[in-house]
# Entry
Amino acid sequence: MQLDEWLCIGIPDDIMEQASAWLARLDADHVSLAERRQLAVWLDEDPLHRWAFDELSQLNARVASLSHVRGQIHAPKVMLFPQAVTPQYQPAIETGTASRTQNRWQSLATLLLIAVGIGLALNAPTKAPGDTHQFEHSPAAEYFLINGE
# Structure
């Protein structure tokens, strides 16, 4: 469907031409008060006049709002976004004895923590031989635990 097929459907061509002429006059740099009064009279003569004028005014406003981007539309690239520089991963290179010494201390600290954990686990207190008390699972005990009475 073409623009002229849906724009102002139902408005006679002569009224569209008159509305277009009025828009052209208003777009000029000098519009007299008498011309503005003539436009008001013409708009009030027929609802089709106002409808045609409103339709063409809206179209004119849309086209005018696009005029400032005309140069960008025909440009090969509409917008250029700056490229972010992504840092390249560079593995650490050992340069001397300082990094080797640091790695040794980290390894020793890790081994020491593991040894302490194993020692604590092996020396954990166990049940005393006389401690044979176990909780009875009876309906009354479960009721007490659930209801807190």
